[in-house]
Structure formats: C-alpha cells, structure tokens
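Weekly modeling sync, notes
Attendees: AB, CL, MP (scribe)

Item 1: holo prediction request
CL wants a bound-state model with magnesium ion before deciding which constructs to order. AB pointed out that an apo prediction alone won't tell us much about the pocket. Agreed to run with the ligand included and paste results into these notes for async review.

Input as submitted:
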Amino acid sequence: MGRITLDKVRKAFGEVEVIPPLDLTIDDGEFVVFVGPSGCGKSTLLRLIAGLEDITSGQIRIDREDATDVPPAKRGLAMVFQSYALYPHMSVRKNIAFPLKMAGMDPTEIDKRVNEAASVLNLAQYLDRRPGQLSGGQRQRVAIGRAIVREPKAFLFDEPLSNLDAALRVNMRLEISELHQTLKTTMIYVTHDQVEAMTMADKIVVLHAGRIEQVGSPLELYRTPRNRFVAGFIGSPK
Ligand code: ADP
Ligand code: MG
C-alpha cells in the first residue's frame, strides 16, 4: 500500500547539491518524521517524494513500482499544506471536495467521502461555514480533510502546525497522531521541532545539510545517538 523507497536519490539546484545521494525506506503504515535545522533539505526531500520537484538522479519507488517519472497527481500521495492554503470564498464542504471535483469524481461519491472525512475530523457541523468563520485548529483540520478524501497511500505534511500558537500546536499534534492510529496510513511529517518528532514518530530521520545523520525510533535516537549532532538535536544527555 504505502511503502516508499528512495534509492540513491540526489537533488541539485544548478551547481548546488542540496541532497547528496540518499537511501531511505518508509514502510507501509509508518509515521516517519524528517527533522533537522532550517535549510537542511527537509522540504526538498518531501517535494521530491511528492513529485513537486524532479530528482537529479536515483530512483523513487512507491509500492515497489518505479514512480520517478510519475507526475505528482498520479503518485497517490497527498500533501497537507498549512491551513492558509484554503479557499476563503468556499464553504468547508467545497474546500474539502475540491480535489475530488477537479478529478471529475461522481458527486454522490464525493458527498460520501466528504461526510466521512468530516466525521473523522469532527467537522460535521461546520461544513457550511467558510474558513474565516473557523478557529485555527478547525481550519487546519479542513486542510487535512482535503487530503483524506483522496484516500492516499501516504500523507505528506510540511510543518503543518508552524503558524499555530503553542497550545493549539499540542492539540493538533495529538489529533494528527490519533488520525494516524485511525487510518493506519503512511505519514511523512516534516518539522524542525524536536518535541513533535519525539512524540509523534515511529521512525525519525535526522537530516543535516541534506544527509541522513541517523534513522531510528525516538527511543533509539535518545539512548544511542550516533554523534553529537544527533544528541544535540534530540536533546539526549549524551
Ligand atoms: P528545510 O525545509 O529543511 O528548511 P529546504 O529543503 O527548504 O530546507 O532547503 C534546503 C536547501 O535547498 C536550502 O539551502 C535552500 O536554499 C535550497 N533550495 C531549496 N529550494 C531551492 C530552489 N528551488 N532553488 C535553489 N535552492 C533551493
Ligand atoms: Mg522547509
């Protein structure tokens, strides 16, 4: 279903190599967090997986099939953007339905999927409102709803909570973890926040200047950081 394999994936912008050749496997159903300081290549790596950027060399496989040249809309992955990407003039229902409508799906099926997503996200009573009439957390749930209705093989999140206040961030963090437990779909979550990484991840990928410093569970990274960079970043006492 949602197994993603990167095989010697490399990305250069002109002369500048942002991601040196990198291998990584993300198992079906895993919650994987890419963590690292600003500018280390987290968003670039996510965009390569999504197909929003072309890789310079290497191969990306989704469910064992070569997806390297598959366009983003055909990869079966859904990127969750920050809530300000919602359409302010459309109702919540229309915002969530939008990708399905664009894909030409049957309206009855669209309604069914939107209602299911609204129920999972506790948005059922807000479907006729506009984004401006919702709280920040509700708006972020609408943005997630827009990904859920596509029934993707994997969800890709790029710092989805970074424009929310601290209390709401904690709340949404728990909600996204719960959503993962409910849907059991692969999730790749980018953040520069160690706390988010440690509390949400099955597997953490620590990035530094486009390279993977270490991959492991939060406990493994905390107990046996491979080097000072990982230790410092994870907040390990070592
Ligand atoms: P992060 O998300 O970890 O903050 P990014 O993936 O956005 O990091 O960026 C990694 C590096 O790639 C940065 O040095 C950034 O300046 C560079 N970069 C990102 N996108 C482009 C681009 N379109 N053209 C040139 N350089 C880019
Ligand atoms: Mg980024």
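Recorded for review: The chain has a mean pLDDT of 94.
Action items: CL to compare against the apo run; MP to circulate these notes.
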